[in-house]
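Appendix B, Record 12. Input sequence as logged:
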Amino acid sequence: MPFGSSGDVNPFVGMGRELKRWGHEAVVIMNPHFEKMIRGAGVEFAPMGSVKDYERVTMDPDMWDAKKSIAVFIRVSLAQVPD
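Logged structural output:
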């Protein structure tokens, strides 16, 4: 379950592909913003959050501030944990 941009997701897609090649099941849990990329690589996908959530976070100026980004990351992450 990666968080972040394509650069954060790509290694998980590669691991998922390799696990499948070895006969294992692999599912990448990620924001639907990345669904096409993940499924396009032949890896199973499970959604977490919404595309609007992803857009809201990437447009938050605090996400790009080195001192504030971890607070944004934690807030968004905790909001997506099921009760």
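The radius of gyration is 14 Å.
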